[in-house]
Amino acid sequence: MRTFPNFIASGRLGIGAMVLSATLFCGPIACGDDASTDTDTTTGDTTTGDTTTGDTTTGDTTTGDTTIGDTSPETDTTPDTDATPDTDPDTTPDTTLDSDTTLEVSDTTAPPAQPGFASILVPVTASQSSPSGALNVFQSSGTAFLTGSNWATTQYTAGSRGALIGDFDGDGLADVARMSPSGRGGPGALAVRLSTGTNFGAESTWRNVSYNVDTVVVRVADFDGDGRDDVAFLYASGPGSPPSANVFLSTGTGFADSVNWFAEGGSIGSAATLVGDFDGDGRADLAKLSAGGRGGPGVVSIQLSTGTAFAASTVWTPANGFEPGSVGTLVGDFDGDGRDDLMRLSPASRGGPASASVALSTGTAFANPSNWTAATNDFSPGSGGTLVGDFNGDGYDDLATIANNGPGGPGSIGIRLSTGTGFSGVSNWLPSNGSIFVGDVPAVVGVFAARPD
Ligand SMILES: [Ca+2]
Ligand SMILES: [Ca+2]
Ligand SMILES: [Ca+2]
Ligand SMILES: [Ca+2]
Fold it and tell me: I want to staple 82 with a disulfide (CB 3.0 to 4.6 A). Which of 68, 116, 122, 452 is the partner?
């Protein structure tokens, strides 16, 4: 109000000067506004100097409001401090993650979908009894699975490398991909069906690929840490060819040309090559397991992702060595510290108990494995597979063992929840009216739907 001092200094001014003053004042602000020290941009209010936040007028520029439940879009770039989610469907996205516990639709720096409970996907192959295959999803409620439902009618065969699970477009929901084989007819393809949260959409080819189905090891993970899962084709050395790790980075709508992430050297584990974020930096790394020979202990070596390549191998073997499990070795973050750990599965043998032993990552090595099973003989591998996922959404990865249906009953999905230091006793989460059978194509785990409210 720069004209005000002038008015005082002039004493009684003529009416013309008053009009001039008011005209200047009206300028870009509506006449009738008090034009004083409001900090909001609302026109027409009559109270001077208001500093009240949480008004219901759109376009406020006050940051950090502490009033909950406003119904208008905010334009501020500072996170709200309220603990209750805004009810507005923002049209202008906040650029900082709100501290409220419900994400807004348009938050650009947060995962659009909330962390969900892991579901189990059972691919059903076509057969005489079921000419069209299916992708049956058993969604978790946190304490049990809902009745399985078919999310896409499609066909898988054992030779197709099964269902590849990853969040390929980075929307927070896991999608499903498959490889069609390359052959005399031309290259194969990586084809993706995106999750909508309630089903899988139409299949779309994201990349034509050539590969040798007999020798390629396929792994899905977010190797460059951009939030979208990528695909790696791993090859051991062959006659005249060194080992290679051909990584196809997701662009969100396709896979880019592959780049060999072993350009500076690398190798494939003789027992297994697994992927996980073992140092917890958000980029997926390689773990190579080699069984011990001649009485020596097994070795775990890690090639950390730099975001553009796999770095040179470093030895992460626990002090007492690490033998790959006779049933297998699985990856998961069982203590929920953000670093992936190893779990080896061994059935009962020679009178000893079956076990699921976990070797926790310290970020630079693995600690000695310890038996996480709840009681002697508590763990036995499932005939339909043994899977890892966070089935109750508490941040600790859990263990699922599937027993196929048969003459004895409908089968079961035995869940052992991680407490962060061990697994609980087993509980059957198969719905009471359900049955489960895993055939030639392995069952897989993914967060296909957002967390139920
Ligand atoms: Ca997705
Ligand atoms: Ca990625
Ligand atoms: Ca990493
Ligand atoms: Ca961990």
Answer: 68
